[in-house]
Amino acid sequence: MKTECVADVSMNSILAEYNRELFDRFSLLMVETSYGSGNHSITNTEEHLKNYAQKNFSRSLEGKVRNAQTMTSIYCKDARISGTSYATDNAGAVLNRQILAYMKAEPIEHALFEAQENKRQLEEAGFDTTDVEEMARANQEEIDSIELPTIINEDGEEEEVSLANPADEVNSQKGVGVLNLAAGGRYEISEAYANINEYSSHRSKNKGTGLNDRCELSVMDKILLEQYYFEKCGRYGNELDESLLKYQLEYLCYGENSDWKNLEKMAETLLFWREASNLAYILTSSSKVSAAETAATALTAVLMVPELEEPVKYSILFAWSFAESISDISILLGGGRVPLFKSDDTWQLGFWEMLGFRNNLGKGDCGSGLYYKDYLRIRLLMTGHEEKTKRLMDIIEMDIRLTPGNDSFMIDHCLDTFCGEITVGTSYGYETKIERIYGYEE
Q1: Fewer beta carbons under 10 A from the terminal one: N or C of the chain?
Q2: Tell me: the pLDDT tens digits for 385-400?
Q3: What does the alpha-carbon distance between residue 253 and residue 189 come to, in Å, rounded to a whole number?
Q4: Considering the chain, what is the average pLDDT of its residues?
Q5: Residue 434: in which H helix or E strand, if any?
């Protein structure tokens, strides 16, 4: 009985040495087996187990004073750990199991169900598969293939007359980049950078023995994981002070090595979606189509190239959709709302505003619709589960390494469950072994 009690107390004492910063920041209970030393090895935990067992077999202070002995003089002969499961085992299944154990006490936010509905609508409308930029390029190739009239210039040389397509003024800005256009110096963007080769997803990882590394995820489990990401990770517009990368949810989506790159990728995604949505609307707006037709007719009539009228009309509509989309992204970055589907009331740029769209950005709100965080939720839902798990482990390492005594923290050395074996000897030469499996959910 004494031996079994000592084994239980000793193994519980191992679990009591969970990393405090990991618990405080991410609500995870795990033992980091280097114990802040930088020497990542399960032998450290074995030494701790042996020490705990030996202390519990040792005589009390009163016993030492009286030189009292137990009948058999029991002592810990050896202690070893024969089975393990670490956070990263089975593609992070152990980590996800702990997250779910924590999250199942939390109510599910209504915003998550709204995000799923928004994702459904976006996909059904084809906004995630309609490449408007490719359509615009194909239309421009058609324009370029048609010969324009020539004139003799003042140098006596023949040159092609300029089409003076108003769409060209908009299209010439595309090389600036989506984020540069939409932010335009109006919004402060984090310059944080991480050498991601130093983190979990980019290195060979320590592995356990498969002791407890299964985690089958239901639909509801995945919803809870999504909620955990939003609870524990920062993002553009809701940055965490004590974090390396500030746009952590964006990192979960894209895995780039800087806040700027991850936000730029998100801006490019927004452009893809918004162009598809805005084009779908503008093609049904008789007033806007008429404005594009009027401009195209006037240009082609002057040049006497009627075959250009239709492609020029569409080039203007494509450019208008692009300019409106940049305006949308600027609104979102500024904290405003943009609906998935535009209407006459929520459209922002008129024809002439489109031509100088960079001077017409920064409008506060469309009056209704989704915020940046809502679009980000959709993008996160579209990101593969394994990718998110892998990148979450990077984020955990990034942030825990910023805390005192954890500069060498490695999540693949974070112990969740272990099988401990304590070999007990006596002064009479008897020996016995106690084996127990202990974990935070065992």
Answers
A1: N
A2: 999 999 999 999 999 9
A3: 18
A4: 90
A5: strand 431-439
pTM for the whole thing? 0.91
Give CA–CA dist 430/440, Å, rounded: 33
Task: Please indicate whether residue 302 or residue 30 has the higher confidence score (pLDDT).
Answer: 30
Rounded Cα distance between 369 and 373, Å, is 12
- Show Cβ contacts of residue 184 under 8 Å, excluding neighbours closer than 6 positions: 330, 358, 361, 362
Which two three-digit tokens encode residue 358?
A: 């960079």
Query: How far is 42 from 50, CA to CA, in rounded Å?
Result: 13
Could you tell me which residues come within 8 angstroms of residue 385 by beta carbon, excluding any fewer than 6 positions away? 217, 222, 225
Phi and psi at residue 370, to the nearest 5°: -100, 150
DSSP letter (8 states) at residue 94: H
> Residues with Cβ < 8 Å from 88, sequence gap 6 or more?
94, 95, 200, 205, 206, 207, 393, 411, 412, 414
pLDDT at 324 over 70: yes
DSSP string over 220-272: HHHHHHHHHHHHH--BTTB--TT-SSS-HHHHHHH--SBHHHHHHHHHHHHHH
Q: What is the per-residue pLDDT across 256-298, written as a single tens digit (0 to 9) for each?
A: 999 999 999 999 999 999 999 999 999 999 999 999 999 999 8
Residue type for position 177: G
Alpha-carbon span 136 to 317, nearest angstrom: 9
Cα separation, 318 vs 328, whole angstroms: 15
d(CA 436, CA 442): 10
SS3 81: strand
Min mean pLDDT across 17-31, 213-227, 375-389 is at: 213-227
Closest CA to 275 of 175, 382, 126: 126
pLDDT band with cut points at 50, 70 and 90 for residue 74:
confident
Give just the sign of the alpha carbon dihedral 355, 360, 362, 364.
negative
Q: Helix 372-382 crosses helix 309-333 at what angle (to 10 degrees)?
A: 100
Sign of CA dihedral 232, 238, 243, 249: positive
